[in-house]
């Protein structure tokens, strides 16, 4: 028996790729990869439309919320787990400095400029809108179950749990 999800307010009908009986036998690795690829492209496209990359957003966000600024190494280390970016952030940091969205103080600690704050605020609004769109018709209870199931599968596969953000 297949499941069709109806979205009343937009008269949009969600058709699933397979019947329930077929979906339950689909490989989780494929679907988590496909979801990651699709959602990452969506978010990155929305951010690109306002002139910032996702890694640059992470850097601005981290520096903004650091009371004493952050060194390049601190930013890179803190972002190591974000989609395996790590050391690849150096060019993004350089571009943010070049664009004068970040400046380095006399101790080489990065600080966000007024222009950086304005772009960060615009990016934050874009991120909230992206989340709302992606989470449309997904109740918090279902989202929570999805994350817990994925974490349980990671645990069962012997993987580490990411630290709380």
Layout of secondary structure:
Blueprint: E1 4-7, E2 12-15, H1 20-23, H2 28-48, H3 54-64, H4 72-78, H5 90-98, E3 102-104, E4 110-112, H6 114-134, H7 140-156
Give the radius of gyration.
19 Å
Share of helix, binned: 40-55%
In terms of DSSP E residues, the strand content is 5-15%
- Report the span from N to C terminus: 39 Å
Give helix and strand order, one letter per element, not per position.
Answer: EEHHHHHEEHH
Task: Walk across the major sheet and give the strand order.
Answer: 1-2
- Classify the secondary structure makeup into a structural class: mainly alpha
The 3D shape can be described as: elongated
Instruction: Note the main sheet.
Output: 2 strands, antiparallel
- Provide the residue-averaged pLDDT: 87
Q: How many distinct beta strands?
A: 4
Which regions have little confidence, pLDDT < 50, spanning 5+ residues? none
Number of helices: 7
